[in-house]
């Protein structure tokens, strides 16, 4: 397995801690996260791909969640569920996250209503380069039932579009605060699990309203929807991730790993 130590994290500037006990959750995750520069979706370009694999995980493939937005996306997914995994209260998972190109992020992530060559090139890179690399080097499962895709904001738009475009690849979707109406693109297998989250304070309630519309479009697929009082920011997304990730992959009873904000704001429909 590839073990290239992280030299720098573009989205987290971390000072060396005095002791392991004083590390913040982000620092601990950064120390456990590895990355590799891969050929990017555009000619002559390279992109960082990060992955976190629990230090207590045994060898062999693990369920995998692919996240948009590089280390930031990885940290959102891992930070609140990590203690339960490390303590053995939840099964391990590998999280793989692809760095975004700031110049093209929105058009790479948000498919919209028309064909987009930039979106298609990025999606082809994701499926044809990132997935095979992660399966070889990060121990990511090759099984659809153990593979999910997620993101925040436009990254959530990408997760929805990716799972809809290739429902044969992904059985789980973590969509934190999608901001574009992608209902016309929905394709989903009956067993695909969806997590939709939205803060009522995001864009004066517009994001929560869109989330409710997407929930209707998902139909009778298994859905965990979280709507509560948070803003369009990392803190809110972290706080509705642990139970959601556990539910998506059946890593643990979600009630055993979720935090109070999830208990107050998350409801499951048609658990399958």
From TrEMBL:
Coiled-coil region list: none
Transmembrane segments: none
Listed SUPFAM superfamilies: alpha/beta-Hydrolases
Keyword Signal among record annotations: yes
Signal sequence residues: 1-20
This protein's UniProt keywords: Hydrolase, Signal
Native source organism of the sequence: Terricaulis silvestris
GO molecular function: hydrolase activity
Top-rank taxon: Bacteria
Name this polypeptide is given: Putative hydrolase of the alpha/beta superfamily protein
InterPro entries, alphabetized: AB_hydrolase_fold, Esterase-like, Mycobacterial_A85_antigen
